[in-house]
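thread: overnight batch results

M.L. [08:02]
morning all. the overnight job finished for the chain we discussed friday. pasting input first so we're all looking at the same thing
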Amino acid sequence: MTAAPGRRSSTFTRLLRHGFTDASAAERLLDSVELAPLRDDPVLLEALGATADPDLALLGLVRLLEAQPNPGARRELLDTLIAAKPLRDRLLGVLGASTALADHLTRHPDDWHALVTYESRDLHPGVEEFEAGLAGATDPVSLRVAYRRCLLSIAARDVCGTTGVAESAAELADLATATLRAALALAEEAAPEDAALCRLAVIAMGKCGGHELNYVSDVDVIFVGEAAEGADETKAIRAATRLASHMMRICSETTVEGSIWPVDANLRPEGRNGPLVRTLSSHLAYYQRWAKTWEFQALLKARPVAGDLDLGEEYVAAVQPLVWKAAERENFVPDVQKMRRRVVENIPAAEVDRQLKLGPGGLRDVEFAVQLLQLVHGRADTSLRSGTTLDALKALAAGGYVGRADAAQLDEAYRFLRSMEHRIQLFRLRRTHLVPEDEAELRRIGRSLGLRADPVADLHREWRRHATVVRRLHEKLFYRPLLDAVAQLATGEARLSAEAARERLVALGYDDPASALRHLEALASGVTRKAAIQRTLLPVMLGWFADSADPDAGLLNFRKVSDALGKTPWYLRLLRDEGAAAQNLARVLSAGRLAPDLLMRAPEAVALLGDGDGGGLEPRSRAHLEQEILAAVNRADGAAQAVTAARGVRRRELFRTAAVDIVGSYGTEEQPAEADQGALVDRVGAAVSDLTAATLAGTLRAVVRDGWGDDLPTRFAIIGMGRFGGHELGYGSDADVLFVHEPRDGVEEREASQAASKVVSEMRRLLQLPSADPPLLIDADLRPEGKSGPLVRTLTSYEAYYRRWSLTWESHALLRAEPVAGDEDLGRRFIELIDPLRYPADGLADEAVREIRRLKARMESERLPRGADPKLHAKLGPGGLSDVEWTVQLLQLRHGSSEPGLRTTRTREALAAARAAGLITDEDAAILDEAWVLATRVRNAVMLVRGRAGDTFPTDSRELAAVGRYLGYGPGHVGDMLDAYRRTARRARAVVEELFYGVAER
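M.L. [08:03]
and the structure it wrote out:
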């Protein structure tokens, strides 16, 4: 058949119209000897065009015809193919969807007969029919052939649409049941003496147990063994173990006919480390004492399938009561929180967006949500105790535990995703949950799902749509029924009872469910626009609160903010329309006391959380802060009003800093937690230090203007000391400062000193006045003569004191001195004055070094609070802040004159400079840096969580868990956090012992 030059044959055109992508190759195949009788048969072309991949189906048909043993068999196949539509649809449908099953038919060309019959019992076969199909198998190879023959019929009904995805999954589970029984029978036949010694039950778990198996999946099992009557138990369990092992090998090992599927027994007690077979009493002892929540979750799907079914039923009856008590376990909430935190980091980054099972909006989200609700409510409602996901979802909706509309959407999405999974696995019969990238494969999958217009684009669109539905409903599924229960708006739909609502809240981490329900009722009840928006927001907000260490506080704080701002037009719109704002607010409100306290004093600061480009949570520069505060001061009437305005800006900016710190530490759905802990510390230290400096500058301007007009009779500067000078202030830090002044020309020193003293006194008073804003405490105890000396001195007085009386500790303290406010020239000259003291030209004398070491040792013994655990004290404990800072500062005192990089007030910069100068090894520097960052983070965490400063971990369990969450430790990992801190501090102390207390010069 040759077309005229320049023209395509009519067959070529018809092939393209019927969905062939390589019409030239298809023409050649149709011209083959095997298909000669049907070459122009329109019925064949129509049937091929209806398959998922017409090219593949045609190639498979030619291969099958070639494999027929003789012309008579080939003629029988072709005649039946044209005459019997059921065979035509089934056979070509399979050939167009699965190269693996096409290969099977080529190796076993007579198996197409399995697709011919079309009686009612063939449409919905069960275990009995599959057992009959496997009955002729006498060894592992023939079992594989029989298994594939049965699988062929399941796939044929599936791709033709005769059965839906749920029915196909159930049939696959029934085939697995029949296969396990056949494999066990072969194992028993090979070792009859072992079979006589024991009773062995095979319990299906996972998707097989739940009657929802994939085409290619591990078949999860648990083995239960008992001694036969009169047999020794130890010998019986050994015999049962041999039988179980042999049965697993029969199914799993690769032969000339491939393998069936792996049998996985790792869900058994102790996993792969535990015995393969246990007695029923041994199983119960483990579950009663050692089992974790996920193990009871797995037991939801336990179903006896092979071996001694009476023993299997005994096992299920014994463990079921434990399953339905799992939600009462002490560790249920942290276990649930851990399970709900996605483990996407274990998926290669390139695969996350292609994952049908574990990716966002994947099958695991649906299955987990359903199973969790079963565990919570199945205790009291036996109708929920199904191992099949879709059946359980239907029961949850019927009982009011899930909204009917949500359940319907989730059911549709789950069926679509499972159908995609089936089609992907069916192609090569390989275990995978990844959506392929090859366009031809995507086209085949799309066509197999009925998407014929633009299969690839339509498949992507439908997949993303369903994944988005799952992702959106995953959280809402838990919480929307709670709102329906309290709002009581919808009629004709079952609702959660008060007790069921309480149980659900407790299971999700709420300690006071009664109060939580009252808050929900107050927020969501009514027919107002405000209540309607809240009902949209709350299901997701409640999930974010539950993911924190204190869900109750998060919900209470949200109610307070909503009560304060509910009437403003922008508040709820901000949360509804900007997803980042809502999640950021949830994180901030449930992370501790400090940020909510700051927010409650001026709730309009919520607006900072919603800047879509992230600018709202970016700390502002020192210049920007000073400009705003000085402008507010200039507008105010009197110093008191001016300082009140400055403190208001400080409160708002403290909230901004705390919010960005919390969001960066927790992460969001779109942005993971900040990996660089040092960056988080530096950001907080710089922001709070700049804010404090700007507040002092504004307060100084207000006091001077109120008392003297534009010019004070003396130049005046404020020198930051300690953490303030080092740009390392925490949320609860005082402002350590020195005050220096210099009389203006023609002004007597006494008048200048009185003016300077009055300025200091008034600044301290105004910054500590009781108000809604947090006070700013000024600490000048590092001044010459300490508390006994004058609060403010002239530059000349400082020079005279330091020349005659300066002590080693004062040189040490001056390492952190940096001008922060006031007269810039005076501040610069003060620094020039002290530089020779803190960076002595000849370094430190041995006596000075010994003095510093004595001071440090005395501080360690005297200042540590009584009863505090030194190993967990972030400031004064071994390896804490004091250890690291004194070690770095000793290097600065010794080498600062010769190493310019050491002339910095910042600890981490000085440490990096010491490393660059070879004064400390890279390893030791990294150890000290890690310890300093961690200790600083602990102090910041304590202030954020408790609302007051502290240097050690909280004793309250919920507060301790909140500190853990801030530091990146999930639920149930508080012990890991404390161990990690001790380990980090211990390593740092070892470095300090060598560098600070050691005798060798560095």
